[in-house]
Design a protein that fits this description.
Strand content: 25-35%
Number of strands: 24
Oligomer: single chain
Order of helices and strands: EHEEEEEEEEEEHEEEHEEEEHEEEEEE
Length: 401
């Protein structure tokens, strides 16, 4: 469920903000169910590959408040928003990404498009489609996200970690979202990317055709809507992995020195909450102390005190243990932010296999990043007006707006 202010109004009253409701696109009852075709090791390796790419990428990189509500469909490995675009109301699914600004989808004609399950959008079939003018502020200037090519067309090239990229035409189009109470809202002149060439995009062969950018970048959806706040609530991945009984018991607090997680002069460091990454990463290059090593040392001591048998790492997950049939004392993980504690239940700290489990934390050379796996069953509120992040526990599968 995502809530934010926008510059359009409707007569029907509704709670302030934008609402994204999560539905399970890969549950066993869905015709799109795919995760059982992969081994658990293969699933976890995909989680890790996506998270590592996200960590590297993040280093590289008006009116009446009514409610917009549109679905967040959960793919096996990420969350995506679903809505329609253009005069023909073409259906799209885009990765929900709080860590990037550009919203884009694949478009015809394709020079080098990745395979997607939904039909690719054809801008020629939409009477509301137009190219973004080279005179637009986003298309000229040293800090502009787009650039004018040959003085006639505004283009973009978005590069991600691992050599992946997408490029195409900066465009404007009408987006159609549910606006509450079974009403549809149409929002003209939304700036987005019409991608004609991409390489090594990690969500290929799914319904997802691009990215829905929710950062504070000038080209993002949030900035275009002059949003003052938005929120979302991710339903768990429970049906994708085994169901252990959970009792959260860890109480050890690590006293990191002041400034450990501040952004460093080289731009690295800091802490990011990112819906586009799956697994949490902790900075291993923090000044004076290796934060990743310290956190994993506490987990190791805790499970060692419980007599669990450590086993070799699985993929890049370093700390793994045999899972006794009756064991239920899984440790929680708490991030102590200024003014509030963010506690991740043991169920979402770990990734479970049939006879073992691993602590779902990776190391990073760039920053600490709280991923979507550790955001399950949390209401995450980005209050841009206050410059604050708010969060609370919530049963997100019951999220109805």
């Amino acid at each position: 469920m995502l809530l934010f202010h926008h510059p359009y109004s409707f007569s029907a009253s509704s709670p302030t903000g934008l609402s994204l409701r999560a539905s399970v696109d890969d549950s066993p009852g869905s015709p799109l169910y795919r995760i059982e075709s992969l081994s658990i090791d293969a699933r976890i390796q995909r989680f890790i590959n996506i998270t590592n790419a996200r960590a590297s990428y993040l280093h590289m990189v008006r009116a009446d408040p009514d409610s917009i509500r549109f679905p967040v469909v959960r793919d096996a490995f990420w969350y995506a928003v679903e809505f329609t675009i253009g005069s023909q109301q073409h259906r799209v699914k885009l990765l929900l990404d709080t860590g990037s600004g550009l919203t884009w989808t694949q478009c015809l004609p394709c020079q080098n498009c990745f395979p997607q399950r939904l039909p690719i959008f054809n801008p020629r079939s939409s009477t509301s489609y137009a190219l973004l003018s080279c005179d637009h502020p986003l298309c000229h200037g040293t800090d502009s996200p787009f650039e004018c090519e040959d003085g006639r067309v505004c283009v973009y090239n978005a590069r991600y970690a691992g050599g992946s990229f997408t490029g195409g035409l900066a465009s404007v189009e009408t987006f159609h979202f549910p606006a509450g109470q079974h009403r549809m809202g149409s929002y003209p002149d939304i700036i987005y990317g019409c991608s004609h060439a991409s390489h090594a995009i990690f969500f290929q062969n799914t319904d997802v055709s691009g990215i829905f950018g929710l950062s504070k970048a000038p080209e993002s959806f949030i900035t275009q809507f002059s949003a003052s706040r938005f929120s979302y609530c991710f339903a768990p991945f429970d049906d994708a992995l085994p169901h252990p009984l959970i009792l959260n018991v860890a109480q050890h607090r690590i006293g990191f020195p002041a400034g450990t997680f501040q952004v460093r002069p080289d731009g690295r460091g800091g802490c990011v909450i990112d819906s586009g990454a799956l697994i949490t990463v902790i900075d291993a290059n923090t000044p004076g102390v290796n934060a990743y090593v310290e956190v994993m040392r506490v987990f190791e001591a805790y499970y060692g005190s419980k007599g669990l048998v450590r086993i070799p790492p699985r993929q890049d997950l370093e700390l793994c243990y045999q899972l006794p049939p009756s064991y239920k004392d899984f440790a929680t993980l708490t991030f102590h932010f200024n003014g509030a504690d963010y506690t991740v239940a043991g169920k979402f700290v770990n990734i479970f296999f049939p006879d073992s489990f691993c602590v779902a934390i990776l190391d990073s050379n760039f920053a600490t990043m709280l991923g979507a796996w550790q955001q399950q069953n949390k209401r995450i509120i980005h209050d841009l007006g206050m410059g604050a992040l708010q969060f609370s526990d919530e049963i997100c599968i019951n999220d109805v707006g």
